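To the wet lab folks,

You asked to see what we're planning to order before we commit. Fair enough. Below is the target structure as C-alpha cells, and below that is the sequence we designed to fit it. If anything looks off to you, flag it before the synthesis order goes out.
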C-alpha cells in the first residue's frame, strides 16, 4: 500500500509542476512559431469552439432547409375526388330532405288554413243560430205576454159578467 501512496504522491507532484509550468502568469507556450500565454490560449480555444459551434448550427439549419425543400417539391396534393363525390351525395340528400320539409310545412299551412276557415264558419253558424234562437225566444215571450193579456182579459170578462158565458 505504501507503493500506491508513493504513486499517488508522485502524480500529485507532477500535476503541481505542470500547473506551475503552464498556468503561471509568466508562462509562454510556443505553437507554430507563435507565442501564447495560457489566458490567450483559453480565449483562442473559446473563440474557435464558438465559431465551430456556430458553423455546426448553420449546417444543421441548412440541412433542415434542404430536407424541407425536398419534401415541398415532392408534395402531391391528396386525391379528394371521393370526398367530393360524398359531399355531392350529401348535398343532394340535404336538398331532398329540405324539399320534403318544405312540402310538409306547406301542407301543414294549408291544413291550418282549412281548419281556421272551418272554425270561422262554425263560429259564424253558431252566432247566426244564437241570434235566431234569441229572436225566437223574444217572439215566444211576446206571444206569451199577448197570450197572458188575452187570458187576463177573458178572466176579467168572465169575472165581470159571470152569466155571459
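Sequence we intend to order:
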Amino acid at each position: 500500500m505504501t507503493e500506491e501512496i508513493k504513486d499517488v504522491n508522485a502524480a500529485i507532484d507532477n500535476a503541481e509542476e505542470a500547473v506551475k509550468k503552464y498556468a503561471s502568469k509568466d508562462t509562454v507556450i510556443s505553437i507554430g512559431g507563435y507565442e501564447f500565454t495560457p489566458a490567450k490560449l483559453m480565449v483562442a480555444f473559446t473563440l474557435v469552439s464558438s465559431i465551430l459551434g456556430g458553423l455546426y448550427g448553420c449546417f444543421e439549419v441548412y440541412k433542415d432547409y434542404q430536407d424541407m425543400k425536398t419534401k415541398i417539391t415532392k408534395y402531391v396534393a391528396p386525391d379528394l375526388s371521393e370526398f367530393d363525390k360524398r359531399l355531392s351525395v350529401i348535398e343532394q340528400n340535404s336538398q331532398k330532405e329540405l324539399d320534403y320539409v318544405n312540402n310538409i310545412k306547406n301542407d301543414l299551412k294549408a291544413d291550418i288554413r282549412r281548419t281556421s276557415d272551418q272554425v270561422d264558419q262554425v263560429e259564424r253558424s253558431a252566432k247566426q243560430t244564437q241570434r235566431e234562437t234569441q229572436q225566437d225566444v223574444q217572439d215566444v215571450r211576446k206571444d206569451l205576454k199577448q197570450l197572458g193579456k188575452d187570458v187576463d182579459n177573458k178572466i176579467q170578462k168572465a169575472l165581470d159578467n159571470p152569466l155571459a158565458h
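Structural context that might help your review: Residues 81-160 form the longest helix (80 residues). The first strand starts at residue 29 and ends at 31.

Thanks,
Computational group
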